[in-house]
Amino acid sequence: MCAFLVSGGNWRLPTADSVPKQVEYCLRGSRRWVPRVCYKRSSLRSSASDLRQERVSGTHCGSESAPALPVSVDYRLVSETAEWKGLEAHSEEIKRLHLRELMRDAERVRSLRAEFDGIYLDYSRQRVNRQTMQLLFDLARRTRLTDKIRAMQSGAHINATEGRAVLHTALRADRRATLVVDGVDVIREVWEVLDHVRDFSERVRNGIHRGVTGKPLRNVIAVGIGGSYLGPDFVHEAFRTDPDAFEAAKGRHLHFLSNVDPVDIKRCTQDLSADETLIIVVSKSFTTAETLLNARAMREWLWSQLGRSEDVVRHHMVACSSNVKMVEKFGIDPRNTFEFWDWVGGRYSVCSAVGALPLSIQYGFASFARFLEGARSVDSNFYDVSRPLEGNLPVIMGLLGVWNLSFLGYKSRALHPYAEALLKFPAHIQQVDMESNGKHVTLRGDDVDYAVGEIDFGEPGTNGQHSFFQLLHMGQPVPCDFIGFIESQYPLCIEGEPVSNADELMANFFAQPDALAYGKTAEECRVEGRPEWLIPHLVTTGNRPSLSLLLPRLDPYTTGQLLALYEHRTAVQGFVWDINSFDQWGVELGKVLAKRVRKQLNESRYYGHRISEEFNVSTRDLMERYLRGQVGCAFNQPFDYQRDTGTGRSTLQP
Ligand SMILES: O=P(O)(O)OC[C@H]1O[C@H](O)[C@H](O)[C@@H](O)[C@@H]1O
């Protein structure tokens, strides 16, 4: 049985015919999408043949036994497929070719470009030819990429280890669309929250919602970390110099408090006065230790200036979270809580209230709505899998990522926006990609025997050129993405200068990819008359891949387009690699260990307890040195402490 629940707007539905037999999704009593073919728990981590034997159908799907596997395939590891092996063999041929030769073939160059809604992608400087791309698209088909994309769009629980749908694209869907998942129209819920954001942000901007002393709230501090910070901060920086957003933000200030280092509090608050400040606590779980401590610290800061009352919290603190109960317990007015859902991953949450609230208060809702429209535009390209994948920008970029890491062996990847306003974009994409694809097992729990998950980093051009580009040119090769814009947010021409300031910037955007691709030969150095002894130091081998993205101008719309492009690139890579790009269990271990250390610090500092032998010698000695605050102390002695008879609390003595 197959049924489809999505309709309206720009959502394209999978049709019954379009879903292959092995990946049929059935609509069960719970109205939850689960695959009809699934596996017993015992089949996790078994061989391909075992898996085939242990296939069961019907009632064992979903949370009742093993997690639902979103898309069933007929191999254990993608590296076992003929398509993968074909690419491995082909990569040996490509490794013998230099980009200098590849770039000579004008027809090849012209065939390696794609365009969608103003975004021009040139990937001719990748170490690929038309055959490579053909083989990569074959691999995409073999891994059922289009079915996986459809499963994501339809709200199937593709985040199998957490039993969740992955629906961040619903956050920017047209309000006329409908998407029923688990019995709920998620798009209606999304727009209810967006309307709430619009209303609240207008009330703050118009001075209707004021502080407890009656002053308008012209400052906002958004308290959050990871996905509850990096996305909004990147968009804030991108909007800051957009002429319309700039006008709308006049007289207003937006700050982000993310680090639990108390210095971050100092940096955020030192020029602000509490009576004009609104605190937004942003935390999906509302349990993140750093965010909650910072939220309590900000509450103390408000109370220290405005008096200790619930009213102060109600006027000056609001929250974006999916844990409404905990928010209320904190003392924040439920009417000022902006909800989002478990199907929004933290690193994919910037289009939810997480980004909507701070950015709409700062720049007005209209700019944020344009940002959503830009993201929606690229979503439509990504989801339009009934068209050839050759025109699907996120798919092309994702396949190139797979090629560079898994076949050519490039472990890192760099992102260089030639736009200062995108200075925080690389950091955001670093979390999106590294937290998503930093995995070591497939969805079924089998160890991967191929490289997955790049090390992502980047800086805006031209700053990066004067920092780490030396290594990119002569040291370890790192595939680069260059992002440039035709029109500057701030056109500036200095009289007497040969080019405008933006042309100077873009001259580098055009030059760097060729410098990386072509390099410089010893012969070219000789023609320049360089001395022979110096030549080895001057030669750059070239053959270093990159791609170039050229967009009309950086504004809220194109910011949204870039966000979606990179979010989906990550998903495509995860789909092809057959890993779960939507959980992050690795982060948990550090949190658990920090809990134990926190308890020890409390017991040692305030009650003089010795550091427990449960910690290893290294950690014990480091903590001891830290707690005693002195060099050369005797290790693991009880601490001296003094009891305050008034409070009954003990304090460690230096
Ligand atoms: O929004 P929160 O629940 O406070 O989570 C903040 C961050 O916590 C962890 O570090 C997760 O790995 C991130 O994905 C998440 O964005």
TrEMBL record:
GO molecular function annotations of the record: carbohydrate derivative binding; glucose-6-phosphate isomerase activity; monosaccharide binding
UniProt xrefs under Pfam families: PGI
UniProt-listed Enzyme Commission number(s): 5.3.1.9
Alphabetized UniProt keyword annotations: Cytoplasm, Gluconeogenesis, Glycolysis, Isomerase
Involved pathway(s): Carbohydrate degradation; glycolysis; D-glyceraldehyde 3-phosphate and glycerone phosphate from D-glucose: step 2/4
Gene Ontology, cellular component aspect: cytosol
Annotated InterPro entries: G6P_Isomerase (IPR001672), G6P_Isomerase_C (IPR023096), Phosphoglucose_isomerase_CS (IPR018189), SIS_dom_sf (IPR046348), SIS_PGI_1 (IPR035476), SIS_PGI_2 (IPR035482)
Annotated family: Belongs to the GPI family.
GO biological process: gluconeogenesis; glucose 6-phosphate metabolic process; glycolytic process
Protein name from the UniProt record: Glucose-6-phosphate isomerase
Catalytic reaction(s) noted: alpha-D-glucose 6-phosphate = beta-D-fructose 6-phosphate
Source domain of life: Eukaryota
